[in-house]
Amino acid sequence: MTLEEFVSLSAALTGYAADVLKPTFDTQLVSEQLYAELSNADNKIPAAQLDELTDVWASIASTPAADMENIVNEKIMQNKDIARLAQNIIYMWFLGIWYDLAKDPSSFSTPNNDHVVSPIVYKNGLVWGEMGAHPMGFSTGNFGYWQIAPTLPPIS
Amino acid sequence: MRKVNLIALIVGLGAGGAYISSISCGSSPSSNQSAVGAAPAAAAKISTPLSSVMPFDADLASLPPKPVLETNVRRVFDIFSWQSFVAMCWSTNANEVIGQNGDNATVWETWKKNYQVFLDNGQKPAPWNLVEQSKQKQLSQTGKTPPDMVAIFQPFLTGPLIDQNGEYTRFEIAMDREMFEYIDQHTLYNIEGQRSFKDTVMFPEGDISKKTLGAVMVKGSWKILGKNDDISRFHKVKAMVHIPALPSRGIKDSSYEVWVGLVGLHIGTKTNSSPQWIWSTFEQVDNVPDFGKVEKKHYNFYDINDTTNKTLNKAPSQPWNPGIPGQKPSQVARLTPIDAGTQALNDSFRKLLVAINPQSVWQYYQLVGTQWPVKPTSSKTGDPFPVYMANTTLETYDQGNIKNGKIIMSPGVTSSCIDCHNGATTWKGVPSDFTYILKTAKAFKK
Question: Bridge-partner residues for B242, per DSSP?
Answer without folding.
Answer: B255
